[in-house]
């Protein structure tokens, strides 16, 4: 069999990532809505995701090392099969179970899912750097192509995660929680079969990295990772638990309406991410993004959650419209932030150590999601959605302040 071309490898990795993302987005909505319908508080629902996010931190830190040492194909396989196992675990979950046992059991399944998600994401994002053709005679063209491929993978993933949100709400209404997770496990296993043809050495370093290589020694990676922590904490502090519960409990939206709306938001967010290179070109920005772009977009984002909070505080006549419009603006600006961040981590990395740097970076991403998820459940109990929005604005401001310390990438 002829070796796969870089484009074919990219296509297989992307297809697997897409399938995984559909199940991940659907599972998120299934868990939130199913357990909210059973009478769980927002903090208890947030705790269901505690291990999901915590083990994402551990996985990204060690997964990058595993990918560099043993190859990204192994980590991609491991992540996909672990997600299948997590979905199968949830099939027997029953309404009659005691609350403490349900919480503990689902937290365990979510821990496996968290490990799976971040192994899969780290593998897919790292693989791009290794399969993008090198252009030694035109470095700018190579960097632009890297930016485009990263934007397409990241944007399409988030668009499909939005489809997953809608799918989760739809499946819960039609076939129920238990049948839904079983069907998703079967579909994801079929997607795993596609990856069997990937080369074994993709992403593997020639010199086996020591375990001490887990911690990044690059200032650019360290500062960008801290900014990423604040950025994704700012999103999840109101988006993960507080927003869907607010829409359903305070505004009276039905499950499928909440799932559909949040799904459309993530789809739009993903489309903006995928279009980031084209949007920048339309604004006359022909060069790959740099530090100034990170600072600009995080600065703009700071104001948006604060404006939504003010609208709710002033008791606007149609709070649902304020949420929809504000969330749309937040999505566009956040998507530009995230797309540029995802490119910058690869710009700071060389091809050999890319999985180590990406793993460390997404460890910070997972830590931000964990902090945001817990704050989302706790702050909503204390001060409702407004408290979550003010916390979001503060966290984005911290991301902006951190990004002012970024060095310029070497572009090599």
Report what the structure shows:
With 412 residues, the chain is mostly helical. The protein has helices at 6-37, 42-48, 50-70, 72-89, 99-131, 139-174, 176-194, 219-239, 242-250, 255-282, 291-313, 319-347, 354-403. Helix 1 packs antiparallel against helix 5, helix 6 (139-174) runs antiparallel to helix 7 and helix 11 packs antiparallel against helix 12. The model has no long low-confidence stretch (mean pLDDT 80).
Please write out the topology.
Elements lengths: L5 H32 L4 H7 L1 H21 L1 H18 L9 H33 L7 H36 L1 H19 L24 H21 L2 H9 L4 H28 L8 H23 L5 H29 L6 H50 L9
Question: In summary, what is this structure?
Answer:
This protein is mainly α and 412 residues long. It is 79% helix and 0% strand. α1 (6-37) runs antiparallel to α7, α2 runs antiparallel to α13 (354-403) and α6 (139-174) packs across α12 (319-347).
